[in-house]
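tool=predict chain=A
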Amino acid sequence: MSAPETPQSAAYDSAFLKACRREPVPHTPVWFMRQAGRSLPEYRKVREGIPMLESCMRPELVTEITLQPVRRHNVDAAIYYSDIVVPLKAIGVDLDIRPGVGPVVENPIRTRADLAQLRDLTPEDVSYVTEAIGLLTRELGPTPLIGFAGAPFTLASYLVEGGPSRTYENAKAMMYGDPELWADLLDRLADITAVFLKVQIEAGASAVQLFDSWAGALAPVDYRRSVLPASAKVFKAVEGYGVPRIHFGVGCGELLKLMGEAGADVVGVDWRVPLDEAARRVGPGKALQGNLDPTVLFASTEAVEAKTREVLDSAEGLEGHVFNLGHGVMPSTDPDALTRLVEYVHTHTTR
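tool=predict ok
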């Protein structure tokens, strides 16, 4: 008697998961960070009047938004519609996502006493995630769903700064000046993040991505000492599920090898480092994801295709390659440019 089919097994032979596993693919798979979102008129329509965090807690709405770019662009994977601060909100941290600003934390963490804000996350805290992923995987069938979470450093940066920052002065002051408090903060966030990813995998996500959006602000020596252990703890916690683990940060060219060492199966690369050079830095045994500059999509179709060929040529001979942008889709991007890009990559790389 064969084992019952799971969402993961339904998607197992997809081009995306094959590339993540560094297996031969029928074509280079494509998906886009922030593919579900403000670039799509259908997204703006269904989100009208609904605050960001509230939209992340409505399973039917999450399902619709996650499916929109799959329908429109024919991408090879869906990414779960959520936000990196959702697990923090779920455990009672007083925060909100303000339009045009981003996550804002009412009571930033600056002292050991402030750590009390961070209780353990339970699956019951995010039951809407389990429900939404159940709905999604039934709709997606063989198309894989990527779950995701914010990495401990990026979450800590928001919590300590109180919101977005260009300098991370408070976070770095804690990291340098009170390394024990910093380590305890990141360790607690690693536990919360691990549970959040486990919930998504157990509900049916076929891969997970850890976004360390702000890690590029760090020198390699500081990343290795003060950040890598917490990220490694997250990846280790989900290793037993056997789903591909992707690690991505912006401006992390100097950290690529360390980000791979943290435990990722796939290392995401922004547009600043060519993929062949990224592969040299990361070392063998990892697939790469990336890395077209998102602003290229504002140029002519011919220019987009030329730059896309550069990325694909740079990826020639890689152990595994997932085509993506070097960061998220920008809100004013023409959706048709994304649809054309997917078709171009598929056609150009058909084996």
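The chain has a mean pLDDT of 97. Residues 179-203 form the longest helix (25 residues).
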